[in-house]
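Entry type: protein chain
Record version: 2
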Amino acid sequence: MHEPIPIKMVRTDKELPLPAYAFDSDAGLDIYSAESSMLSPGERKPFATGLKIAIPIGYEVQVRPRSGLAFKHGLSIVNTPGTIDAGFRGEIKVILINHGNESYEVKRGDRIAQLVLKRVERAEIQEVEDFDHTDASKRGEGGYGHTGR
């Protein structure tokens, strides 16, 4: 197992727990809603978490849905995975959407998402007039479900 990366976090709502891994083998830290609200079918709404985070340069934190909420109630995150950049210092909010057929009440203290720390590689964009097609993939310009048939 790798050494943990230290992440500084401010809890603006001291009644809620800090994010935590449920099991040692988990990839995501569970985070909690700092507010209660009803989500109707098809509705989306941002939920405060009472957390601010300082991510080291070279990393991002992805905000991902919880599989139990998705399977049991149709709840997901609109922009999944959401990305928190290293320079962001505001409160983490989770934009939940109800894909289910029934209204769902998110209660204060409910686990609503998980945070996954990821290393970020930087790209250097090199503008060219065209690509060297000798090493192009067989796919070429086909995309969006293109199978070449």
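Comment: The first helix runs from residue 67 to 73.
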